[in-house]
Amino acid sequence: MKIQNDENPVFLNEYITHLSVVKGLADSTVTGYYQDIRQFLRFYLLSRAGNTRITAEMLTETEIQDMTPDDLRKITLRDIYKYYNFLASECANKGRIRCRKGSSLRSFFHYLTTQANLLDHNPTENLEISSPRNALPKYLNLNESIDLLETKADSENPVKIRDYCILTLFLNCGLRLSELVALNLSSLDMMEEKMRIIGKGSKERIIYLNAACLTALEEYLTVRRGIETPEPALFLSNQKKRISRRRVQQIVEDSLKEAGLSGRGLSTHKLRHTAATLMYQQGGTDILTLKSILGHESIATTQIYTHLGETAEREAMQNSPLAGTKRKSKS
Fold first, then answer.
1. What sections of 191-236 are H helices per DSSP?
2. Where are the alpha helices (DSSP H) in 154-237?
3. What is the pLDDT of residue 321?
4. Across the beta sheet with 188-189, what order do the strands follow?
5. What is the DSSP letter of 326?
């Protein structure tokens, strides 16, 4: 979605610029914030106009470009709770989505109060929204990961060599889809056995390559160097252009199907979870090192993998051969 600045009030366009330029957020993240805030502002205008029942369809017909800072100063915590009721009743938004939209509003009003200085009071200051319990992410176990890789192994086909390398980096390095697609030839340092990653917010990190990654990359680079193109991307499409996110998703989807692993809600992001889970559970990687490898902003995000470990331990105890034994009582 392309943000149309002429459809927004000045303060919203300035906030979008702040997110993009000052905070360095990705375009997709900025768009998400924008959509959440625009939805709330539309709802607020309809509510203030006296509409007793607002529908999702009504929002699309509501224009916000004439809103002023004076309109913002009239927004209260009660208005925000009314919006939350609307999200649950009319939009059927789950708790996780409502929580995300609440975070968007908190960020927006914090900016208006502390940086744009348009408000003297932040209406979200006392906003209470319970965070939904994090669901444990889906992932492949070790044998399933090997099965997935074997769908592209033992082939001299250049495309399969490329795809094998892509799967190997996902499963060993825990890359995000956007990070893998953004890799350039210059991102690699094969002599030092490391790779430079551009993560969220354009933050750079270094990932050191293990033997599996080095072997897969060396085989693919033999193919890649034979392709004449000015394109700096590491992974190329059949048109000799940077491979698209959608094409990488299709490669993963096709490989999962070939390995008999489809239909389980797995995706490129689940391969990232797989890498992290295997590193933590079976590789003995400590949580701080894992946080660095994955490029997480907060240790709280990485701690989901400790919960995965707890789940595995609980299952191991329940599956013990002696789990059903008990002392015989004397009659």
1. 211-224
2. 158-173, 177-181, 211-224
3. 64
4. 188-189, 194-198, 204-208
5. -
Q: Do residues 151 and 210 share a domain? A: yes
d(CA 306, CA 295): 17
CATH number of domain containing 243: 1.10.443.10
Tens digit of pLDDT for each residue in 48-106?
888 878 888 888 889 999 999 999 999 999 999 999 888 888 888 888 788 888 889 99
- Known catalytic residues are 176, 200, 269, 272, 296, 305
Q: How many other CB atoms are there within 10 angstroms of residue 141's CB atom?
A: 14
Q: Looking at the domain assignment, is residue 265 inside a domain?
A: yes
Residue 204 φ then ψ, to 5°: -95, 145
DSSP state for residue 191 in the 8-state scheme: T
The answer to whether 16 and 30 have CB atoms below 8 angstroms apart is yes
Residue 189, Ramachandran bin (φ over 0: left; ψ between -120 and 50: alpha; else beta): beta
Q: Which residues contact 143 (CB under 8 A, 6 or more apart)?
A: none
Q: Domain containing 87: what range? A: 5-114
pLDDT at 155: 78
Is residue 20, in this structure, part of any structural domain at all?
yes
- Say whether 204 sits in a helix, a strand or coil: strand
Q: Do residues 181 and 161 make contact, with C-beta atoms less than 8 angstroms apart? A: no
1 sits in which H/E element: none
The whole-angstrom separation of Cα 217 and Cα 209 is 10
- Whether 122 is covered by a domain: the verdict is no
pLDDT digits (tens, 9 = 90+) for 228-252: 999 999 999 999 999 999 999 999 9
Supply the pLDDT for residue 42. Answer: 93
Residue 15 has pLDDT above 90, yes or no: yes
